[in-house]
Write a structure and sequence with these properties.
By secondary structure, this protein is mainly α. Helix content is 64%, strand content 6%. The chain has a domain of 105 residues: Arc Repressor Mutant, subunit A. β1 and β2 form a beta hairpin. α1 crosses α5 and α3 crosses α4.
């Protein structure tokens, strides 16, 4: 018979606390860019994968379409993204990163790389690689595999 760990002794709590700590550091790292962590993540995905719809981004991030639309609206008002009509599907709106957004993405990625390195200093090279691999395993076990297709629209 398996015993249930105490509230603070279980893996869910440990992951929750680690997530909070890392998220706080992420917010500190991107302070001054005038975007949230989610907004930066969406901009990075758009910069890497090309134009996508709000629905595509919601599926990719596993967030609600409303959250994706809200984030995209903020990014659009800041000049980081712009809307473009889909060439074939009249009701589909694509979002793409602007030059301002690309500059922000480069700076955001630079700052996150610094945070990555500070975590590597805490964990060490071997544990860092193992932790990343295990977090991917946990995510895939709970959420399924990452969505491979960047967009459902041709």
């Amino acid at each position: 018979m398996t015993t249930v760990p105490g509230w603070t002794d279980g893996l869910p709590y440990a992951l929750f606390r680690a997530n909070q700590a890392v998220h706080r550091r992420l917010e500190e790292a991107i302070a001054g860019l005038d975007v949230t962590v989610t907004q930066l993540g969406i901009a990075v995905h758009l910069a890497e994968l090309g134009h996508m719809s709000a629905s595509d981004l919601a599926r990719r991030f596993r967030i609600t379409p409303q959250s994706a639309s809200t984030a995209l609206g903020s990014l659009e008002s800041k000049g980081w993204v712009r809307r473009t009509p889909h060439p074939y599907h009249g009701r589909v709106i694509w979002y793409e990163v602007t030059d301002v957004g690309r500059t922000g993405v480069v700076e955001g990625r630079r700052r996150l790389a610094q945070l990555h390195e500070s975590l590597r200093e805490v964990l060490g090279e071997e544990l860092m690689g193992a932790a990343i691999a295990q977090m991917h395993e946990v995510t895939e076990a709970l959420d399924g595999p990452e969505i491979p297709s960047p967009t459902m629209w041709r």
